[in-house]
Amino acid sequence: MGPELALIATVVGTATSAIGSIKQGQAANQTAKFNAQVAENAAIGSRQTAAENERRQRRVSLKRQGAMRAQGASLDLLEDNAMEEELQALTIRHGGNLRARGFQQQAALDRMQGKTAVSSSRVGAATTLLKGGVGAADKYEDLPAGSPLRF
Fold this sequence. Notes:
Strand content: under 5%
Largest sheet: none
Number of helices: 2
Radius of gyration: 33 Å
């Protein structure tokens, strides 16, 4: 291969590599954004599920309280049972909120990773261009004096 072709190959290869690096970062960012949206949706679902389970727990609690009243349970027993039932309902809500918070944190992490991928790809592309520029300069120096690529 002649020096002209070596120079052209270096320039084209460098440009292709730099573009590939940027495209890879953009693809990683798109994937991260998608994963973040999935996590956000899971957070919403977690809260909705917890709210429904809490509602069901409260309904069951009311039925138990009614049955206990019908059987003539003491006021102390009814009060103790009501507190226990409320604690169960609040525990369900709290668990759903904790799961949702975890999903939201995952979404934030995914978005951060996507931004990092874009930044890294730009740095990688710049590094490739710099290295390629040095390689092209070396090849340019190897061109004969009469070469059409020499300025």
